[in-house]
Amino acid sequence: MRTISLIKNKYIFLESIMKSETNHSSIIRPNNDLFNRKLFISKTNFQNVCWKCGIEQGISSLFCDKCNALQHPKEKENLFKVLSMEEDFKMDEGALKNKFRKMQSLIHPDKFSNRSSAEQSISEEYSSLINKAYNILQTPLKRAEHLLELKGQKLDENDKIDDPEFLMEMMSLNEEVEEAGDNKQLLKNLFEKNKCVIDQLEKEIEDNFRSNSIEKTKKNVIKLKYFISIHNKINKILRELGVTD
Ligand SMILES: [Zn+2]
């Protein structure tokens, strides 16, 4: 009798599973959601728990609320988040500088000479990450490239301008710089002219990002690279001539 009842129960159990799989898929979904939510919670807990005392941390906490240990940087890939700046090409460079200085004053390895070696190495890692973020974000070309990378549109060597007219323009601009020789006034004029083009391109890139025109952005960022290389070339000559620092 007991065996029969067990078999019967098993049959009822199997039947209920079949039903829930065929007719009651909505019953299954909440369980999956619950499962995903549990995974999510354990993942975020893992990321936001103090490495030293295990107490949960806010996402932007630099130091543990309980034991005051310096926390690992949480967003290493997104350099805007490293410095708590808005993820945008338009950048308040003064605010960026302030944020950088403030964070560096809290995290600089010199501040951790009396702390544990674990905290010293976190401060070194964090400090170099902050330097890297600042260097990239303060330079419009690098900032644009990083922003493209965050959008999954990283530029590579194969991304070139396929426009003979533009390339001719760049060649003749390079020739103009070479022909200027050590004529300071001519070089200064070329520098100013080139700077105007750079400013204009940066404005266009700002608009391109705002309207999410990825192809236009990429094209203008590559163009900007050419003009920046001319900028650097003239700047180097002017420095050698003792005109600029
Ligand atoms: Zn702690």
TrEMBL record:
Residues 170-204 form a coiled coil. It comes from the Eukaryota. GO terms for cellular component: mitochondrion. PROSITE patterns: DNAJ_2. Keywords: Chaperone, Coiled coil. The keyword Ribosomal protein does not apply. SMART domains: DnaJ. The lineage of its organism: Eukaryota, Metazoa, Ecdysozoa, Arthropoda, Hexapoda. This is J domain-containing protein. It comes from Acanthoscelides obtectus.
